[in-house]
Amino acid sequence: MSADRVYAKTDKGRAELLSRTGTLRGRLRAALIVVNGQAPLSALQEVIGDGAAGLLEELRMLGHVEAVEPAALAAANDSATPANALLEMRRADAMHRLAPHFGPDVALVARPLLAAEDAATFNCALDAIESKLALYMGRRDAARTLDGLRLQT
Known about the structure:
By secondary structure, the protein is mostly helical. 65% of the residues lie in helices and 5% in strands. It contains ten helices and two strands, in the order E-H-H-H-H-E-H-H-H-H-H-H. Strands 1-2 form a two-stranded antiparallel sheet. Helix 2 (26-34) runs antiparallel to helix 6 and helix 9 crosses helix 10 (139-145). It is globular. The relative contact order is 0.13. The mean pLDDT is 83.
């Protein structure tokens, strides 16, 4: 598998992230969140860690991602901006941080975060999640858990 290969979410993959049932768990789901149709496998490995190639291949076999030509995708997709790429990376980071606290319900809790299309909406969703975390962690620990995820508006 080439380190320059680029993956994009399929309709099935996007639906998986928005579904309440969420059949994907753990690192597989986190890998799906990080896939943005722009970053090559080598960049995704830095975020996902060891085994990224295997996780992406499994997602491809399940129909959640597909290998794409980066130039063709950029021409066809007007949302391929650095701001959107940063938003996708922050979503993935947030899901990694929230999974230990919410377990299998993380997708339900983070639904507004996953649906956010801009920095302001993303930050508002983070504020709501931080309030939920503060109920059992305290405000300081909840803020520490989500530290560094907010986007500049």
